[in-house]
Amino acid sequence: SSTLPHGRSRSRRRATTTASFSPSALAAASSVLRRPFSLLFSEGAPAGGPLSLAQRSVLLLLLLSHKQPSGGAPNRFLLALRSCEDTSSARKGIVLVPFPALFEEICRCMEDDKSVGTALLLLFDLLQEGSMFKAYLLSRSDMTALVVSMARVLHAVVGQQSAHACDITSLLASVLLMLSEDHGFHVACQRERLQAVPWYHDQILSDVCVSDIVCAVVLRAAHSNLMKFRSRGLQMLLLALLANHAPFFRGLEAHTAYRLLALHEVVARRYGRARLCCEAAGDRVTPALVDVEEMYAEILLASLHVLNLALAFALPWNPHLVYALLYNRETFLQLQREKQLRREVANIVQVVEFFEAELKSASLEEFSSAAVISVIEEALTLRWGRGKGGKSWGAGKLAERVENDMYIFEELTQEPFFLPYVWDIVVKRGRKIGGWSSSLLYPLFEGQEEPSLNVSPVNDFEGRGRSR
Fold it and tell me: Would you call 194 helix, strand, or coil by DSSP?
């Protein structure tokens, strides 16, 4: 089965030596160690308002949970957090937490900009594979309320060009990916509809399902990442999330379908530029240019996989997706000329050619969007058996077989990424300390010379998404 990596980042282990220190040096070291913890329990007024005892306790728990013990021993705090159960459980010797109250508090924190980061990191720890809280959350009838809140937060941070925005985007995408591993999650998101989405500014959305909102916001984040952060790992994480949603597309909004194809076109255009630059450089091609070409090739393949999943398992219910494919048909015809992409583009070109023939045979007087959509809907109903209850048109009709593999989240290496992020929250919520700067959760290369493509290779984080 295919693999969609989220990227890698190698943490270097430094050798330690035994040495003697003067009493003054030991005192200075103790002061350095005590100073950060004083932020949690200082009496001074912290930035952003005073922290309650509960907030301080959660921050301290997150700090202890993401500090890797020496010698490779498991972190007992993290194990206890991930193995907790509801107070209704009769099991002995485990941590019991009232899940309903915890869920309501996390939902409340999603509406508070100052508490979002803490709530997301706590939720990330609670949703690891096999956790009882994840099963509880997915069983709730109002689970989609939390999903909508996360989509709203993601929409708000996408427009911000800062390390904090990249941190929140990465955490949100990770949490949503873990939820999207469950089939019931998609059923609930398709069933729940919102009459209005006032916080979504790109388009007026009405009577739209939660799944459509999530996909639209994730596509917006993916496009923003290409333009601003240029993080390879984050881009693959967002595409893995879209790949999990693609087989469940039902009645995809025109706006969402347009965004999906617009993102693919940007990636295809950048891949073409990178390939041409490498060919023009010949023997003088630099490693940086090769890395850029490989990066966009990987992102392009992931983008094509999302489209193939949608065509194989959801095409009969998505006329607007077909319309967007027809509108962008030149992009796929160009990619078809690439020998290494011919197989990935075969199904898309097949769909485009079929519906182009349908439009020609319809002999439309004018090619208005309404008239074209009407022809597409009729062709989907009559040709692919949507009206006869057909669930998938891919079997026996697509040129290439598409496997419906669900991408699941693999745990990140804890300390190199999450510990600085938790301390960043502590510093922001505690008293200001000069010299402390925000750290990216998934760090980018900083200060590197960009190749002629105006893009730079990026460092990725340890952790992968694997298909099952």
Answer: strand
Confidence of residue 367 (pLDDT cuts 50, 70, 90): confident
* Number of Cβ within a 10 Å radius of residue 55: 18
Phi-psi region of 413 (alpha: psi -120 to 50; beta: other; left: phi over 0): beta
- Name the range with the highest mean pLDDT among 46-55, 62-71, 318-327: 318-327
Element holding 218 (H helix, E strand)? helix 210-227
3-state helix, strand, coil split of the chain in percent (to 5) is 60, 5, 35
DSSP assignment, residue 394? Answer: -
The better pLDDT of the pair 118, 424 is held by 118
User: How many CB atoms are closer than 10 A to CB 435?
Assistant: 4
Phi-psi region of 92 (alpha: psi -120 to 50; beta: other; left: phi over 0): beta
Q: Decide: 179 and 199 in contact? Cβ < 8 Å.
A: no
22: CB partners within 8 A, 6+ apart: none
Amino acid identity of residue 139, one-letter, is S
Q: How far is CA 85 from the centre of its chain?
A: 27
pTM given for the model = 0.80
Long-range contacts, 357-360 (Cβ 8 Å, 24+)? 358/383, 359/326
In angstroms, the CA 354 to CA 329 distance is 12
Helix runs in 49-201, H state only? 53-65, 76-82, 99-110, 116-126, 132-139, 143-158, 163-179, 183-191
Q: Read off the pLDDT of residues 282-315 as tens digits, 9 standing for 90 and up.
A: 888 898 899 999 999 999 999 999 999 999 899 9
Q: How far is CA 352 from the centre of its chain?
A: 29
More confident residue, 28 or 129: 129
CB 6 within 8 A of CB 225: no
Contact in structure between 208 and 193 (CB atoms under 8 Å): yes
Distances (CA, A) of 339 to 155, 262, 268, 343, 414: 37, 23, 15, 8, 40
Q: What is the 3-state secondary structure (H, E, C) of 17-34?
A: CCCCCCHHHHHHHHHHHH
Q: What is the mean pLDDT of residues 368-385?
A: 84
Element (H, E) at 208: strand 208-209
